Amino acid sequence: MTVDSLIAALENHPRYATCLTHVRSFPEHEGVFRGPDRPLPPPLQDHLDRNRVSLYLHQAEMLEALREGENIILTTPTASGKTLAFLLPVLERLLIDPAATALFLYPTKALTYDQLKTIEHICTETGVSARPAVYDGDTPRDRRPRIRQESRLVLSNPHELHQILPWHHQWSRFLSGLSCVVVDEGHRYRGVSGSHVAFLLRRLRRLCARYGSGPLFIVSSATLANPTEFAERLCGVSFRTVSGDGAPKGSRRFVLYNPFRDGVMEGSFHRDAAGVLVECMRHRLQTLTFTGSRKMTELVALWAREGAVRERVGTTDTIAAYRAGYLPEERRDIENRLKSGSLAGVVSTNALELGIDIGSLDGVILAGYPGTMMATWQQAGRAGRSGGESIAFLVASANPLDQYFMSQKSVHPLRTAPLCSRRISPDRGRFSILRAGFPECRRCPESRTPCCGNPTGARVLGEQAAA
């Protein structure tokens, strides 16, 4: 069955027909390809040839920029091949320099382990002796010394890096050869948490300088309004931006679904989201539903299971919930079942919003506006990653912002709003940390200068206040 048959069924459904506010079609478009200026090393080029892979325009541009020794922020839409864009130049460096190492930082464990599978596969096919490994809170302690001593490509997260840096002497081999640091899904690091990560990366740079290395930084991000400024404040070095999207796209539908009429609704919009999921399953469209909380994730999954059994379109085993709090083995099992197609539907928090490869999903349901344009299109972009046709639903809540989008009866406001900016302020964070280090020092309300207490603290805080 097809997306068209699903929309036709919803338009004739006694409950759902009145809720379909607007359906927007986005046509497919061809990919834009470009070869590298200088050939890749034979193992990497042979891998691309065997898999019939040609580089998209932005992938080739990024490869050349990194060859020239520039720090790069890659800001392109979801499903545009960002992983291959930064992985190829990193593996090229590891092939050329046997002592080189690389560090990949990811915001979630699900994304980390998914990327490990991809990297292991490419390293095996190309013969790159990188020994990729994940080093995080789930890594068994008996495996950690071997990773520190042998791995040339380590996948981790900012929290674990914070634990690693005080023990840098155990990582002297790795840090002395550190050639590249990749910060994937960099747009997640904003505000206060972004400032913490900014300090963390500055600590890493300082230790690299101590051990004689000067790694290039690669930031991979969704589309931003201020990519260069954001990356430079995050990492503390100058950046070049690579944008645009040369990847092909299949045809897509975006549906605005409003269960509220005149401000009144029977039941819950989450139940409607569960009902739409069941309809997608009826039309054999593998679908991912996003909710705003762990509790609603479990409830929507429960209602969808009940509906699937009642409508005889699935069993309780064909729908799963996915959220933080599950054991690592449970998360991996759900990811593998989703990728293999044995799960017809998954209900998730935003844990699956990021670039984890979950196969060729056909549909996405957003149970309520996620809060930002970026998150909306990140989540909607989880469908159709194989280039086939796809559909996304925005099921509106009673929230005034949700209802505003519904009142427009168009996705135009969602498409034309200014791109999201990401702001971090490490300078303000530095002042707060200094104040915490000298608690006896205070700022005088009248003069706005430090007063009394520790002379050193007063002097340093005074310099920061004047800066």
Description of the structure:
With 467 residues, the protein is of the alpha/beta class. It folds into three domains: 3-29 and 249-416, P-loop containing nucleotide triphosphate hydrolases (Rossmann fold, 3-Layer(aba) Sandwich); 42-243, Rossmann fold, CATH 3.40.50; 430-466, no CATH class. Helix content is 43%, strand content 15%. It is built from 18 helices and 16 strands. Strands 1-9-14-13-10-12-11 form a seven-stranded mixed β-sheet, with helices on both faces. A seven-stranded parallel β-sheet has the order 4-5-3-6-7-2-8, sandwiched between helices. Strand 4, helix 6 (144-150) and strand 5 (153-156) form a beta-alpha-beta unit. The termini are far apart. Mean pLDDT is 87; it is low at 444-452.
Name the features.
18 helices; alpha/beta; globular; single chain; Rossmann fold
> What is the CATH architecture annotation of the largest domain?
3-Layer(aba) Sandwich
Low-confidence stretches: 444-452
CATH topology call of the largest domain: Rossmann fold
Top-tier CATH class of the largest domain? Alpha Beta
* Count of DSSP H/I helices: 18
Tell me the strand order in the biggest sheet: 1-9-14-13-10-12-11
Give the biggest beta sheet: 7 strands, mixed
CATH superfamily (homologous) name of the largest domain = P-loop containing nucleotide triphosphate hydrolases
Q: Gap between N and C termini, in Å?
A: 64 Å
Basic shape: globular
User: How large a portion of the residues is in β-strands, by DSSP E?
Assistant: 15-25%
- How many beta-strand elements? 16
Number of domains: 3
